[in-house]
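Sharing a chain and its predicted structure for anyone who wants a worked example. Both blocks are below, sequence first, tokens second.
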Amino acid sequence: MNPPRRINPRRPFVVTGQGRKRYTLGQTAAIGGETLQAAASTATPGAAKPLRLTDQAQRCIMVVTHSERGVLSLQAQQAVAAAALLADTRCAVLLIVFGPLNENVASSGADQLIVMPEAKLYEPDVNTHIVGSLIEQFTPTHIVMADNDLPDGDLGRRLAAKYTLTVATHVVELTTKTVTVYQQQGAVYARQPLPRVILLDHDCVDMRLPFLGRG
């Protein structure tokens, strides 16, 4: 059996649904045998960005994170951007935030927002139960989180274990059908089908979105 193919973990791109190429970095990447050209954003500097979600949402991708002093961390913003790039025009990005949030998340790509301002401390069992209830209520197609160990990475692993969800950790690339993860302390990179829970490594998503979420 051939060993997993080595892939550059810092090749920042996300392929969207329906063949749309929402790229902002000027580079090429080969995925599944097809070469994709990264296209720079054509938005005029200072021009208002369009809303990504223009139709009524029929499903959602959930992003779960914990705020830091009332704002989203860089990795949390990347998780929201990844969800927005994965979503199609009838899929909302639902952002779940533990702790206070004092910023607008539309520019990050979020369409719907649930904030629990009193949940400032990470309580693994409590948070797992809360998110489990939200998963049951909203039935997201995917759950995207930052793989930052504590708290988001730990919570994502707990959710996958408790609710028997497919999961990929240390994700360094993703498309609408697959994720690429690193294994063996980063020595080998392997591709697998897109799971229910996606835990993103840092700096694997370009956050310069050509659109806005509904916030």
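Comments welcome. The chain has a mean pLDDT of 82.
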